[in-house]
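look at this fold:
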Amino acid sequence: FAVATWLILFAVFSHVASSAGGPYRTMYAYLHYFLAGTAVFLYSIAIAVAASSGAAPRTHSRVGYIAFTFLWAQVIGGSWLAWQWHTYKKSYTWSGLAHRVSGITALALISAQYYSAGEPDGAVASLNAENNYKRYEEGAIVWTSFFGLVVILSFVFYYETFKGLFESNKSGLMNESFL
């Protein structure tokens, strides 16, 4: 779980870097596709193994399945958006915005999972008698700090892309309903 969690974070950093433009934009985009796909694959394996043991607390398991669903929605939706862009050079602003909001939601759920696994009665403690869950909690703090940085960078880089959705006269009602 921890390896997949860090991979997904680096995948998002790559996505933000590709959106910032520059000479390495395409490389960062493909790095994002590879890292995100690998992370979701690793999550799939980890969840299958963890589900077979049944050792995780009930709330941790349920939130984990919700996060996992969001991650697969990200893979499917992101693959469709990438295919549309690379094949037809089409960009769907509302779909792209939904992809990003869904991604931030998935990362927030993953952050909660990281913390809950490191609790004294969490998933790591139930599997580990040496009380190494405290180190897991330290990792969660660092990961969540990086997650916060990703959110801030996302708003900085994507502001120009999405501000037209809310500033045009046609989308005034959408702006009010969105906010």
About this structure: The radius of gyration is 18 Å. The chain has seven helices and no strands. Helices lie at 2-19, 25-53, 58-88, 93-117, 123-127, 133-167, 172-178. The CA atoms of residues 37 and 75 lie 7 Å apart.
